[in-house]
Amino acid sequence: YFVDDIVVWTITVHNAGNGTNATNVTLKDILPSQFEFISCPPECVYDPVTGIWNIGFMGNGTSRTIKITSRVKDVVPDVMN
């Protein structure tokens, strides 16, 4: 990747559930330091310090795919995509 390239990361979260809904769902995944967070869907909130993504409510048996938009701010060696 080159500086100022836009990169979209895709993460899918699934609530396998046991017949129950999930509330206050979070995911921890820190963006590599060479990337600047730009945005994620409105129902998703990211804390770049902790790397925690607050997803919120997920119904039993549902999946949610989150597309995270970032910008390359430094040379990125061999990032798998």
Secondary structure topology:
Blueprint: E1 6-14, E2 22-28, E3 35-39, E4 45-47, E5 52-58, E6 63-72
Antiparallel strand pairs: 1-6, 2-5, 3-6, 4-5
What does this structure look like?
With 81 residues, the protein is an all-beta fold. The chain contains no helices and six strands. The strands form two sheets. A three-stranded antiparallel β-sheet has the order 1-6-3, with no helix packed on it. It has a three-stranded antiparallel β-sheet with strand order 2-5-4, with no helix packed on it. The N and C termini lie close together (11 Å).
Summary of the model, kept short:
This protein has 81 residues and is mainly beta.
- Please list the strands of the largest sheet in the order they lie side by side: 1-6-3
User: What structural class should be given to the helix and strand makeup?
Assistant: mainly beta
Mean pLDDT: 88
Alpha-carbon Rg, integer: 14 Å
Descriptive keywords:
elongated, 0% helix, mainly beta, three-stranded antiparallel β-sheet, 6 strands, 81 residues
